[in-house]
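Re: the 110-residue chain
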Amino acid sequence: MIQNNGMFDITIITEIISSGDIQWQKHALQRMMERGISRAEVKKSIVSGMIIESYMDDKPHPSALIAYVGEDKAIHVVVAVDVEDKTCYIITAYIPDTSYFEDDFMTRRP
């Protein structure tokens, strides 16, 4: 579940997403609709993106911030992972703001 750097192993998350064991939180769906982000874009962001932050102490399940930078837009997705039940919970998805992230959309500004 965890790599040597203390981050989630992205392969676990992508396997769960690929198998379809996804729980879309109401908050995430509302925010995605407001922000013009589709479920397909979220799935693509998770499968093609990279974990930039892990929150291993989150409850009830550890979570991760995944960043995807595409040709037309960048998307960040926060996903919680229940490794035992092999389920991913989509917490939120958003277009990263350069006020908070560097131009690479992966590095937080100080």
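The mean pLDDT is 92.
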